[in-house]
Amino acid sequence: MTKRLAEVAKKAGVSEATVSRVLNGRDGVSEATRASVLTALDVLGYERPTKLRGERARLVGLVLPELQNPIFPALAEVVTASLAQRGFTPALCARTIGGVPESDYVEMLLDHQVSGVIFAGGSYALADASHEHYRRLTDRGLPVVLVNAGVDELGFPRVSTDDAVAVEQAFGHLRSLGHERVGMVLGPEGHIPSRRKVAAMIQVAGWGDDAWVERSSFSMEGARVAATKLIERGATGIICASDVLALGAIRAARRLGRSVPGDVSVVGFDDSAFMTCTDPPLTTVRQPIETMGQAAVDILVSQIEEAGVLHDELLFEPELVVRGSTGPAPR
């Protein structure tokens, strides 16, 4: 018990006597200090006293699909800083291949009595995935915000990049360079943001179907296989659903003996870190991650403070960033 008091006191930046008063429900402690002690208790993994277990911690979960794609650490940096400014402690949960599934992270966050959860790139974006763990959050009345498009029936507030505008910008750029055979490397069939991109492309390019679309896992090797098929069918321009997929498409072109952008132009999506350092530097559609991350926190905190829930989807306009991976169509 003494060791626990010392650890919690150190984490919360208060005395052991203050921790003891909070745990025993005594008066003489400010609400801010009390919240700090309870959050420290949760972060350190200690159980709250029975009479305090019904109260939520000032702890907010941030659940990410991975950390290998630089866009997710960038989002995490914005969200965690914004949460800290609001007096909340972020709990980062990042999935890995063969690691803890998203549903288990949800259970863990519920056990820690979190105040809310922000999800980015989770199974909510896949139409054919299980969504049962999200419904548990709804049943608990827990504030939740999703970053980027997800299945409609979940009913959570969403903060998204406008996929239609992203496609219009990318396709318009390639058409201005003379490309007539433009293909797309996108995520799996059930991936909602990819579905939106296809719908936009059908409209702006006048496609009758999605014959110029190849699906891939969000990996460089998967994109290489998908882009190879497009290039072999004659595509001179490729629009990708992420920067990682775009790098895979560049690799595909080179393995086929084609140059980028001499023979094939490639456009990414995200404008994640180091895309200025690739060979060639990547033309991409930039997601406004800082604005979106701050908006996600604002919406979540409004729910936590019961200031109202925005159920509409907020769409943020992306920005085309032209670099060296696109050029005039080959003659």
Layout of helices and strands:
Layout: H1 2-12, H2 16-23, H3 31-43, E1 59-64, H4 71-85, E2 89-94, H5 102-111, E3 116-120, H6 132-140, E4 144-147, E5 158-161, H7 163-176, E6 182-186, H8 192-205, E7 213-215, H9 220-232, E8 237-240, H10 243-255, E9 265-270, E10 283-286, H11 289-304, E11 313-316, E12 319-321
Helix pairs in contact: 1-2, 1-3, 4-11, 5-6, 7-8, 9-10
Structure commentary:
The structure is a single chain. With 331 residues, the protein is of the alpha/beta class. The protein folds into 3 domains: 2-52, Orthogonal Bundle (434 Repressor (Amino-terminal Domain)), CATH 1.10.260; 59-161 and 288-316, Rossmann fold; 163-287, Rossmann fold, CATH 3.40.50.2300. It contains 11 helices and 12 strands. The chain has helices at 2-12, 16-23, 31-43, 71-85, 102-111, 132-140, 163-176, 192-205, 220-232, 243-255, 289-304; strands at 59-64, 89-94, 116-120, 144-147, 158-161, 182-186, 213-215, 237-240, 265-270, 283-286, 313-316, 319-321. The strands form 2 sheets. The protein has a 6-stranded parallel sheet, sandwiched between helices. Helix 5 (102-111) runs parallel beside helix 6. The longest helix has 16 residues, at 289-304. The radius of gyration is 23 Å and the shape is elongated. It starts with a helix and ends in a 10-residue tail after the last strand.
